[in-house]
Amino acid sequence: MRRARGRVAVGRPLESIDTFCNSAAVRRSTVPTHLPSPPLPVQPGLAPQPVLVEAAGHTCVAWWHPPAAGTAQALAVVLASSWGEEDLAGYDAQRALASALAAAGLGTLRFEWPDTGDSSAGTGATTVADALAAFDAAARRALLLSGCERLAFVGHRLGALLAAHAALARQDVDALVALAPVPSGAAFVREQPSRAAARPVPTIVPGAVVDPAELPVALGGFTLPARQLEALAVLRWPVAATTSVLEALLVLPPRPSSCAPADALARMGVRVRVHQAASGDATGSEVVDWLRERAADDSVLQGVRAIDGFGVADAGNPAVHARLATARLEAATTAVLSLAMADAPDCMRLRERGVALRERVVRIDDARGPGLVGVVSERDPAANGELAASARHAIVLLSPDGQRRVGPHRLWVPWARHRAARGDLVLRLDVAGNGDSAPAGASSGQGAGDVARAVAWLRRELGVVACTVVSLGSGAQHAWRAVEDGADVQRVVAIDPPLPGRPAPRSGSGSGSGASRALRLWARAAARLLQRPFEAELARAAERDVAVDLLLVGDLRSTAGRRARTLLRDGRMIASHLPNARPGFAAPSDREALYARLDALLRSHGTFGAGAGAGAAATAWRPESRATPASEALRLIARASGAVT
Fold first, then answer.
1. Contacts of residue 59, Cβ cutoff 8 Å, sequence gap at least 6
2. In 513-542, which positions are buried (b, 16+ CB within 10 angstroms) versus exposed (e)?
């Protein structure tokens, strides 16, 4: 028998929607952009599997977390993230929540929107309708992978609002979980951080016809057309009654800003439970326990066929129901998974300036360290009518520690596809402990050996003959350690590496207390000690016949120490400056300047395969018209050392 509808239950002292709305705790505040993490360590189980989901002409990257053996429940979960900076910030917690759900027996498919992460579309190039189509396609794939007949939708922030609309359009969604849901699309737009430096300045050709609705607008660290921003701003919680969604769990921050989600769901006829999290409260277990209760409910087993030897569905016999669900799911796991994966595409097909590309998620598993995950972008020889190149140049892209392979503000995705169109093979790598790679072992150093293993894998599996490592921020340390590990790398490009700054010069006449003078001396000594190991790694990389390039937003003289400046004078290291750029490269103009400078440094002369010459016409970012001092010095060093460039 189905549960009573249209009521509100609460996990905190919160008695009704009216009480919740009128509570003094309801004030407008900054909503946290992170997902709740499970409080307990997740037991190791089956590794998540990458899945490609086709929807509305786009390809979305998803990860299937299969249920642990012997714990399968009769309910599959579809997990959606928010958008923009909130999506980037919540990725790790989203993966942890999916792993916790899978460990509890709830097979979970977490997917990325068509214009986020590793998915195919450019940021801001899709509509709300495309997002809902992707949600529906992910739901169908979750049913196919799990063998279940019922679903639960889990969404974070904007993803919760879209999950409610996606659930309303289906008849197989029994439960909805909204994590810090937004009151509306307009509220989401207002709450995004204001970044004056990130506001795009469109280039308008004189005489061209400009559609104001297509002008770019900054939102959440990204840009999207004004038309899409308007469509997002008018998005509201649905008001139509539903016969599918039975119950909803709302996980609210300590100081929620609105009761609109709970009120709207109650009007739809959904039984709502509100869990108001306290500061530091572990709500991951609340979500897992609540969904396990929904999976054990008799309503999720409607339509489950009887299995010989296990009895018939009987509402008064929960043990039979549990045995039915477990037997049915575990018997179908191998067959269903193999069939589902057989029908799924193994590569994402893209086009970059008329050049056909293919992308795929790869795993690097060997006995030398934890499993690594990355995305390989390359030209598609079959679609371009080409033969596979025998000599290939690879680029390994590294993000700062704590960020996954797409980079800040999805920095690496468009440039990786641009370089792939020019004939390079590009690997966007997650070092151990970041993104979807396994955590580093207790006995290994942070990221030690990861890049070297990736380079060896590229040469062994994909026939790479020359390799360039491009890093951003603290990712430079992984690149330099790879050189120390003996990786066969020809060039290292470090963008804004963490060079320790020199102490600020003393101002005034030198007067002051003895304590203040001692503090200044201690700060100078500490800065010199910090510089030594960093610049030692830099020097060792430059002395191993590896071309080292530094791309800096700030002035090198104010950040580098004596040893780094010596390397620059000796010509063993080349530094170039990006004028007017700001750290993080959030502004479109800064990103284009960075891409153009990288293209100038990595300009190919047809030595890396058949695609290099053909890709010249596919250049999205025009290099500088004249050769820079850095590029000229790089050519001289490469010729003298015999390195392939």
1. 52, 53, 114, 119, 120, 345, 348, 349
2. eeeeeeeeeeeeeeeeeebeebbebbbebb
pLDDT score of 201: 52
pLDDT tens column, 583-608 = 888 888 889 999 999 999 887 433 34
Asked if 628 and 576 touch (Cβ cutoff 8 Å), the reply is yes
Backbone phi, psi, residue 275, to 5°: -115, 110
Residue 343's pLDDT band, with cuts at 50, 70 and 90, is: low
Burial of residue 140, with CB atoms counted within 10 A of its CB: 0-12 exposed, 13-18 middle, 19 or more buried? middle
User: What are the residues whose beta carbons fall under 8 Å from the beta carbon of 549, sequence distance 6 or more?
Assistant: 491, 492, 493, 494, 573, 574, 575, 576, 601, 630, 634
Closest CA to 95 of 571, 519, 439, 398: 439
Cα angle 160, 163, 164 (rounded to 5 degrees) comes to 90
pLDDT for 381: 84
Residues 450-492 have pLDDT tens digits of 999 999 999 999 999 999 999 999 898 888 888 888 888 989 9
Q: For every residue of 209-220, which 3-state class applies, written as one string?
A: CCCHHHCEEEEC
Tokens of 354: 């008329």
Q: At what angle do helices 412-421 and 588-601 cross, to 10 degrees?
A: 40
HEC assignment per residue over 22-85: HCCCCCCCCCCCCCCCCCCCCCCCCCCEEEEEEECCEEEEEEEECCCCCCCCCCEEEEECCCCH
Phi and psi at residue 376, in whole multiples of 5°?
-100, 130
* 470: amino acid identity, one letter: V
Give the range with max mean pLDDT: 185-199, 479-493, 538-552: 479-493
Q: Enter the tokens of residue 570.
A: 């000796």
Torsion of CA 163, 169, 171, 177, to 10 degrees: 10
| Residues near 627 by beta carbon (within 8 Å), at least 6 away in sequence | 600
Q: What span, in angstroms and rounded, lies between the C-alpha atoms of 67 and 50?
A: 15
Q: Taking the CB of residue 555, how many other CB atoms lie within 10 A of it?
A: 10
Amino acid letter, 259: C
- Output the 3-class SS for 300-325: HHCCCCCCCCCCCCCCCCHHHHHHHH
CA–CA gap between residue 410 and residue 38 (Å, rounded)? 26
pLDDT exceeds 50 at position 302: no
Query: What digits encode the pLDDT tens for the residues 348-373?
Result: 999 998 899 999 999 998 888 889 99
Tell me how far apart the alpha carbons of residues 533 and 304 are, in angstroms, rounded to a whole number: 63
